[in-house]
Amino acid sequence: MRKTLVTLACVAAGAWLAWTPAARAASEGFSLHLDPAVMETLWTDVDTHSAKFEEYRDLSSGFRLKKLHIYGEGDKGNRELDVRLQNVGRADARYDLRYGVAGKYSFTLDYNKIPHNFGNDGHTLYTRTGPGTYEIADPTQLALQTAIGNQYKISPAGINYAFLNRLLTPYLDAANTVSIGLQRDRTSARFDLGKMGTLAWGLQYDHENRVGTRQYGGSFGFSNATELEEPIDYRTNTATLGGEWKGKNGGMSFGYTYSKFENKISTMYFDNPFRATSATDPSAYTAPGAGSIGGSAIGFADLAADNSANRLFWNGRAKLGGWWMHGNAGVTELKQDDPLLPYTLNSSITGIAANGSTFDPTNPANLPANSADRKVRITDLAGDAGTRFADAFGLTFRYKYYDYDDRSREIDFPGYVRFHAVWETVPVATEPFSYKRQDLSGEFSWDFASRSTFLLGYTRERWDLTNRAVSRTDEDILRASIDTRAISNVMLRATYEYGNRTFPGSYDTELEETNNPLMREIDIAERKYDLWSLEAEFYPTDMISFSVGVNGRKDDYKKSVLGLQKDDITRFNADFDYEIANGQHLYAFGEYADRKQDLAGRQSGATPSTNPADGWTVHFKEKNTFGGFGWTGKFAKLWTVDVTARYTKSDGLADFFSPPGGAPDLAFSFNNYEDYDLTGIGAKVDYAITPHASAGVWYLYEKYKIDSFILQGLANYLPGALILDANNGDYRANVVGLRLRLTL
Amino acid sequence: MRTHRMILLAAAVAVLALARASAAGATAAAPAAGTEATYVGAETCAECHDTVAKGLASSPHGKDGFAKLSAHGCETCHGPGSRHVEDPDNVALRPRIDTLDARAQSAICQNCHSGGKQFFWHGGRHEQKGLSCLTCHSVHSPKSDTARLKESSVAEMCFTCHKDVRAETWKTSHHPIREGKITCTDCHNPHGSETPKMIIAASVNDQCYTCHAEKRGPFLWEHPPVRENCMNCHTPHGSNHLKLQKTSVPYLCQQCHANTRHPGTLYDATALAGQAKASNRIFNRACLDCHASIHGSNSPSSPYFGH
Question: Is the pTM of this model over 0.95?
Fold first, then answer.
């Protein structure tokens, strides 16, 4: 009922918004049209309360104004108004307004509501007592701490999963129920002056409110990971003022953008389920367990920091003789200067400074800096130029430069508090990770026949890196393609690309002392890839088309002993489309993808293992099938029938191997490496009551099933983890809608 | 691998040969030399093409704004039509745009549409592949509500060629493209840009930050692959894995980390929930249940992205 009233209120507001200037304009010769207004009533039945069903939409039962489109223009056609409202009053509503005077100015406004639901009906011991504060009742904390303490006195080894599970079960049975999700509400407004003229100006403003919760890991130690609801209350504001000049042989555009991100809840505080009072000992990061039952009574998380970005940019284009050219330059400054939280809230911990003196780590005054003081300057430049010669040939040259220069000062910390539990006298320092990327390309094209082009290109991509195991990577990329429509009613495309990434010098394995020296990180490892595709489209008549295609990519990391070894994917697709006659349409399509990935690892103890028997490999297979069809039929000029179906399926396997005798002696595979399928079938029938009104009914059936290794057997408490276990899984849904469509 | 390259080479040769053979006879009847066409006016066009004219009148190209740019109406794009009016049955004299090559088609549109989003059209990937404005847009009979596209929406238009992306948008972890909340042109400019893959912003990361500004940082403790390229870990069109990850954690992390103790440990079927060696490093959010601030952290005690 409330939703219906809100909807009707929004409709009234929208109509007033559109009609008031329009009513005034009507006296000046402005005509308005309604085309269409679509009203629906939905009945929705879902067998589970899975958040997946309404992950990004609102299909709840009730009335909805599905669409309202009002548009109008002045008698001379020089003024235009366009208002579009969708799903009015619902969590996925969208409202658009455009008003303009031809050749002079235009104004657009877009309001887009995007829900994002992660999981329903999770269970948590925590109660949210403040915007960023999650507490467990003191008696519960004390009871759990006492019980664990008593067990520790009897037998430390008895503090295991079974024991903790027994302790927690009664509390979890009475736990709070929470649903995790957030709502993004985005507003975008733009004013353009003189858009089609020689000099145009534009002012764009974007605002986003993002409010809700999402899953967050608030850990107190290896045996005490605690899944929480991270409170989200973000505001992002971005404004761009720009201009553009158009000349006969070129033009330029320029502008300034300012963007500010604010997090209204910058810190999250959360209780430790197993401690009512804070304690510490050298093994407290393993608590609760045989080694320790210490730790902090309260933890905290420094949530996303406020930040800002300022950007100046310029673009230019010109034609000189037979050459065209573009240039682009931009400078961006990123800043983040949030106040720093203390090392810990655990008052039992004593910090140790570099000179051996002690200090209170709960006092932020004892930090080497008060705030983050982070700044980055990004300089981006690009230029390209091209020409055509002898009518059939073309040459293009491009260069792009992107410099991410982290200018933040280094801050040295004498140590840190591990898992809120224990001081680690391990000096750590912040490291600026600056990098530069440069792309230099050349391309040759040849129009070898009518509507046919052969393209040959080469790119050299270079990354200069700081504080990484290599200081630079170079990638040579060769590319060739043929696109032709020379044969009547046939389009053929073939593409091949080869890339080879190398790095000069050696891989610095001392940079990360504890990483195995044989490991090669995926983004800097030596790699070769092949990327290829073949597509053919046929149009035997104006009404029929069909296409077939195959494409794939194969990445080889042959020089990596550990890390990603290969990542191959091959895809096949086929499409059919038939515009039958008189508004009737039939289409069908399908795609099959086969992906294989190989990963190699090695299990180590306190030092990186050199024993090959400690190694392991995993071969991943992912097979994806996707298909659909649709049919629209029109009968007796009054009836319209529309049927659609979509099906997507994933079938994955993780096939492990470990040579016997090492640390992981044997390995065992699992075959639910993200298996899921989604079936959606929709049908719609409309009857034209009059030329301006039609009524109809529609039906949607959806079935979603997931069998994922990360979700199987999930419960609120598992070894070392207190989990929300929110429902994002299987569902079967039926939605029926009655609709009325009007035009005026 | 070699087989793939040979097949592609053979296909390329076959295509070239076929195209050359078919091009030989594809010459249209040329108009007689020495007779210049003149403008006849849009009203004259409408006498025969009344349905088209009526449709155009309700579009931007048929309104006052267009008239301020050109007085020639239909003939602004189609060229002077006097010769066609004199001999309408002569196919060669019909001022059709769809029979022109791609560059010629685009040049017509670019008389007005050369700036704004079309600023970097020349040399862009779509132009190089032989596409023109008319590949995606229809002046006379669009199916979309905005941008005058030949399909009902931006995404449907892009999917006519990018079929693999269509399939990816239907994977379980996806951006809300199929729900209609965002679309391809929120990240890409199909008319061309100075960034690879026609990304609108200066880099992939700058593009992602337009919606995910909380990841922009910079942070006290930085995770280098995050700062360099979001696509080191994520695949934006759709994934079988949570949060658009390319591979599920912990295996995604193990593509870079084989450190001592738990990062390099084997997490196989025995580590799943309910199994003999159930480990919180594989079930639920795995590594991210402890390393929650994986995109970077401001907390002095989080050099390893704990909180």
Answer: no
